[in-house]
Each structure stands twice: as C-alpha cells, then as structure tokens.
C-alpha cells in the first residue's frame, strides 16, 4: 500500500512539473494537449528537430495550423493566438529531412538564400507558398546572409527567413551547406 501511495504522489508531482495545463480527464486517459513544439519535447524527451521533421512533410495532409516566431516555412498559418506554436528554430538538417533545400542565389545586390521545396504534392520549384486570397506566388528567402564570409560563422548562427512576393536573381550558386546554422 505504501508503494502505491508513493507512486501516486510521484505521478502527481511529475504531472504538475511537466505540463502547465493538463486536465485530469486527459491525464487519466494518458493524453497530453500540446500547444507548441516544446510541449512534446519536454514530455517525451524526443528531440524538437525530430518533431519538426514530422510536422513539415505531412502538413498538406493535416488540419494543423501553425503560429509562432519560427513558422515561416509552414503553409497553413493560424490567424491570432490559436494554432500550434512553432517555438523552436529549425536546423539545416531538419529542413533537408523535411524536403526543403536551401539554395544559395547570386543577385545584383549580393547573395541570399531561397528555399527549394521537394515535399510531396509540390511541383519541385523555388515557390513554396501560394497565397490563396490573392493568387500570388510567395517565396521563402533570407537576405541577411552575406555580409562577409559564410565559413567564419559561429556555431548555431541564426538566419532569419521571410516570405516575399517577388525576388529576382541572376544565377544559382549552389546548395547551402553551413550545417551549424538555425533558420528563424
């Protein structure tokens, strides 16, 4: 009997520390309502990059709408505070495993990155999003890349991504291979 009481006490303590809002109904069923990437990461211990790898390729088959500071590569964005929060930046490896390849582009104003989409259900092109309300093609790019040599970057250098409607370039330099960067 004492062991059962200790086990119940340990479960109650872990419930209160691991998840902020966990209704008893969901707790007794073994279900956890997660509102961000950090939720399943803290509960299961699964790497947050693996969670993102699971979410990105299956986005076209899912009803999940995303929000948050790092959801620029997701198509289904939520308006307002509703939706699943992408609160962790993505590594280059995560993008590659998800079917997104960052390509280094040479333009008249310098070099920048564009996102090549190889996910299922796409036409294998640079255009990642199509804005349904305006029927305009949108690109995922980063224009803050090249002030100086890319080999002199520190570990986990952050490269901000943004959605833009029009971008012109002269040529494709190659596939971006700086593996220690995070895309925000």
Q: Which tags fit this structure?
A:
single chain; six-stranded antiparallel sheet; 5 helices; three-stranded mixed sheet; 184 residues; alpha+beta
Indicate the topology.
Elements: H1 2-18, H2 24-29, H3 38-44, H4 48-55, E1 66-67, E2 84-85, E3 90-91, H5 92-97, E4 100-107, E5 110-117, E6 129-131, E7 136-142, E8 158-159, E9 162-164, E10 171-175, E11 182-183
Parallel strand pairs: 1-2, 8-11
Antiparallel strand pairs: 3-11, 4-5, 4-10, 5-7, 6-7, 7-9
Overview of this protein structure:
A hairpin with a 4-residue loop joins strand 6 and strand 7. 24% of the residues lie in helices and 24% in strands. With 184 residues, it is of the alpha+beta class. It contains 5 helices and 11 strands. The chain has 2 domains: 18-88, no CATH class; 91-183, no CATH class. The strands form 3 sheets. Strands 4, 5, 6, 7, 9 and 10 form a 6-stranded antiparallel sheet that branches.
Number of domains: 2
How much of the sequence is in beta strands?
15-25%
Q: Uncertain spans, ≥5 residues at pLDDT below 50?
A: 146-153
User: Could you give the order of the helices and strands?
Assistant: HHHHEEEHEEEEEEEE
Question: What is the oligomer described by this structure?
Answer: single chain
Tell me, briefly, the overall form. Answer: elongated
- Count of distinct strands: 11
Biggest sheet architecture: 6 strands, antiparallel
Report the structural category: alpha+beta
Radius of gyration: 20 Å
DSSP helical segment count: 5
